[in-house]
Amino acid sequence: MKVEEVEGIDSVAIAELIAHLGLDAVRRQLPEIKEAAQMIFAAVTSGGNVFTFGAGHAQSLAMEFSSRAGGLAIFQSMHLQDIRTERRDAFWDLRDSQPERIPENGIKVLDHHKIKENDLVIIASQSGRNGAIVEMAIECKKRGIKVIGLSSSKHSQAVDSRHPSGLMLSDVVDLSLDNGSVIGDAVAELPDGKSICSASTVCFVLIAQAINAEVTKLFLLYSLPVPLLISANLDHGDKSNSPLKFPAINI
Questions:
Q1: In this structure, what CATH number is given to the domain that contains residue 154?
Q2: Domain membership of residue 22 as a residue range
Q3: Which residues contact 228 (CB under 8 A, 6 or more apart)?
Q4: Alpha-carbon distance 246 to 227, whole Å?
Q5: What does the pLDDT look like over 105-142, one tens digit per residue?
Q6: Which of 2-16, 157-171, 219-233 has the highest mean pLDDT?
Q7: Is residue 1 part of a domain?
Q8: Which of 8, 163, 216, 242 could anchor a disulfide with 134, C-beta 3.0 to 4.6 Å?
Q9: Half-sphere exposure of residue 129, counting CA atoms within 13 Å on the CB side?
Q10: Residue 231 lies in a domain
Q11: pTM
């Protein structure tokens, strides 16, 4: 979308475009979303844990899955901040893309959370190119851990990998989903050629909620209690959100 003049910036049209990109990604990848749900359900019901990770603003996917009202109490989010010896303000964490370019940081995050065989890891990255997320996926495969990756196919295909192997996230996961966002993520082009309004967060969130719905259907299909999280800001929320355990079943 091109924005020819300032008064021509149509905020509603931009919002609709971003929503369309995410909805289109869900519609055309419904089989892959169902497959992701099966992988998640299998991990949880066999005694494993499901971990989510995204560097930078891709952390939005990890957050959307984890500890979310109306979500499922089966996800644990991971963050590069988990391995930082000294904490710093979130603003600077988002501005600094260097930590996600360092391959060994991916392994450090896995070790910090004691990821083990039978667990499942979901990794989000708009570009799919940086060292930490590629190394994390490679290390998971070495440990016998299933990995689901989400990135922008258009963005990934337009750039080179920053991992020494030359591989992208989509090359090293068990299941890859396209978030539907554009090259560079921003969707509205200004007269000077620069663009504004990023789509990946909305795209990631819509895919996450579609996966949540499909996982919930599996719990209902197998007559298992749905591990549903209630808003902590409802009066009965704290009482309702007690930990649940699930029996191992074969699917």
A1: 3.40.50.10490
A2: 14-80+100-224
A3: 70, 71, 72, 73, 216
A4: 9
A5: 999 999 999 999 999 999 999 999 999 999 999 999 99
A6: 157-171
A7: no
A8: 163
A9: 17
A10: no
A11: 0.89
